[in-house]
Amino acid sequence: MVAPIIYHGADNQTLPVDSTALLPCLASAEPAPVIFWLKDSTPVTTGPGRDPRINVMDSGALEIQR
Fold it and tell me: Which domains are seen in the chain, by residue range?
């Protein structure tokens, strides 16, 4: 077992109005880490009934469309 290492996390971003934010997360561990995002202590998920502007990508990155 190898402890998780975060190689690249979310950075502060200044974006133009009506643009898309991409918040990357690159980590490694053994076994492979599971990356998830929280908003107000609640997991951010995608799918029916959720905000369609928010996408948790397979890479673990969080995409927020405007």
Answer: 2-9+19-64 (2.60.40.10)
Burial class from Cβ neighbours inside 10 Å (0-12, 13-18, 19+) for residue 56 reads: buried
Alpha carbon distance 9, 22 (integer Å): 11
Q: Is the pTM of this model over 0.85?
A: no
Name residues whose C-beta falls within 8 Å of residue 65's C-beta, 6 or more positions apart in sequence: 20, 53, 54, 55
pLDDT in tens, 11-54: 788 999 999 999 998 889 999 898 889 989 999 988 788 889 99
